[in-house]
Write a structure and sequence with these properties.
The protein has 291 residues and is α+β, with helices and mostly antiparallel strands. It has one domain: Jelly Rolls, CATH 2.60.120.650. The protein has 7 helices and 14 strands.
């Protein structure tokens, strides 16, 4: 892989942000954006236990999906309080994603502000919470709705690996899915699970990497592939903004309404033939997009 560090700034003005990052779809980490929020000082595990500890939540483990795995199928369920108890005891490879905490604790919306001085089009009904215990993995994927994301980390550190959407075939994208065939777990460690013999095109993929800490906000442009590893237990919120172009909006809607449903149907009816077909196609596309 050909990786570079993501630009890190304390703050940025609208003109520079749009010219250098938003329009060219280049990721950026902003250190100062969340420091002005009450959430920066106040949000911790104790607050989450108090506000939503009673809520039942879906949990996800580190196992990659296979021919039978339905999209977003949970691996277990616990209350949020039970989940916090579990990850506070030590490494726990369980995570929660797309949890709309503000449906249960709407008063927490007062603890942050939408960065509308930088972007418009925020989907304010769906600010989402993502949590992970130490060692948990969010496997390589892109967001199906193709939104721009402002992802702010609270508590702990998280390693992020990013690739532009156009690198998808070098990442062996599963056709009709938002997932990669490749397991990027510990991608930069001696125990990396990347099988370069099976997936040689990954070596040519050009991307970015960064470690997010408390209060860091990652601007992740629409369609970016991302793989995340929780180095310590922590949580983050993602603020989503629709693309300004009609084409971008329609592509995201098409992914949700058609691509996902076609894949779900064929996984149920022809799981192995469908999976094998997608795997062959992913390898063919990888070969055609590498030198």
């Amino acid at each position: 892989m050909i990786l570079q560090q993501i630009d890190v700034l304390d703050e940025i003005d609208l003109v520079r942000f749009r010219k250098e990052y938003h329009e060219p779809k280049k990721p950026l980490v902003l250190k100062g954006l969340a420091r002005q929020w009450p959430a920066y000082e106040q949000w911790d595990w104790s607050l989450l236990r108090k506000e939503v500890g009673h809520c039942k939540v879906a949990l996800y483990n580190n196992v990659k999906s296979d021919a039978y795995t339905p999209i977003n199928a949970a691996d277990d369920y616990k209350t949020f309080g039970e989940y916090i108890d579990m990850i506070e005891k030590g490494p726990a490879e369980w995570r929660i994603f797309l949890f709309n905490i503000f449906e249960h604790a709407p008063q927490l919306k007062a603890d942050f502000t939408w960065p509308e001085d930088l972007m418009t089009g925020f989907v304010k009904r769906y600010p989402m919470l993502f949590t992970g215990g130490e060692g948990s993995i969010t496997h390589m994927h892109f967001d199906i709705d193709l939104s721009h994301i402002m992802h702010t980390q609270f508590i702990g550190r998280k390693k992020v690996l990013l690739f532009p959407h156009e690198e998808q075939h070098k990442l062996y994208r599963k056709p009709y899915e938002v997932l990669s065939l490749v397991d990027f777990t510990h991608y930069d460690q001696p125990d990396s699970r990347i099988d370069f013999d099976r997936f040689p095109a990954v070596k040519q993929a050009k991307g970015y990497e960064v470690v997010l800490g408390h209060g860091d906000t990652l601007f992740m442009p629409a369609g970016y592939w991302h793989h995340m590893e929780y180095l310590e237990s922590g949580f983050a919120i993602s603020l989503r903004a629709m693309q300004s172009s009609l084409t971008g909006k329609l592509k995201g809607l098409s992914n949700i309404l058609f691509m996902r449903n076609i894949d779900t149907l064929l996984k149920k009816t022809l799981p192995h033939p469908w999976y094998n077909h997608k795997e062959r196609l992913a390898h063919e596309r990888a070969k055609s997009h590498t030198a």
